[in-house]
Amino acid sequence: MNTVKQALNLVNQNILGKEETVSLAMISLLCQGHLLIEDIPGVGKTTMVYIFGKLLGLDISRIQFTNDLLPSDIIGTPIFKKETESFEFHKGPLFGNLILADELNRATPKTQSALLQVMEERKVSVDSGEYHMPDPFIIMATQNPYSQMGTYPLPESQLDRFFMGISLGLPSSEYEKQIIQQRDIRERIKEMNALFEKDELKEIHESLWNIHASDDLLDYLLRLVGSVRENIDGGEFLSPRAGKDLLMAARAKAFIEERDYVIPEDIQFVFPYVVGHRIGHHKSFNEVHQILKSLIKDIAC
Length: 301
Fold this sequence. Notes:
Rossmann fold; 14 helices
């Protein structure tokens, strides 16, 4: 068994009954793409992030987003040093390998916008200086459904910077019975050992570019993207970045399946989750994912 599948098995042993969602999260991580997880509190979103961080050997920095959080609380701030009579930049919690942005949509739009540059460029500009993030740098953000009080919609420009959007959902009664009998999962996470070095994750990401995608498959991908733009409300927000991310996600799916080429089923598997959050601004993730799954059936390979 390769190391990626070993990691998937360990996550699935702790996040019960969510194999597809766990695979999607792994795909996003292998692509070093930012991941947005939407769901009600208490279904295991942050737990899944902590498990992945531990197994992939990534330093986790958690930021709890609230409506009084300021951009400087995240990025950092220049502080005057008497000894040198100059300002020295003190880095905020955003400087880490794996950033858990918890309940992102509880922060005000001003604070949310503090992430726009770093999600795109992996660096921040403060005063006259530029400060680069460590490599790898991945944001895994959680958000509560917009029907809950105290939430602010994420802007389209930020949604487009998220590689993928997923939802865990409630467990089945069978798995919920097992979950409520388990001891504290945080203790089990502490006992886990990393399966990867940081450099290994970067090497996998680079190797994804070598996975072959035929011209016919690229045409199929573009037909799917074009159909969303033409036929689905909100499809006009779908940028070329979505197509690029869709191809990379399909390559990661092929990598997990130990193939060096992409097949249509790879694209179909990741398509709703790469596209859905970019167009369904007033719908739940689950709702828009179902719409996109129906669209796949109407587009010929």
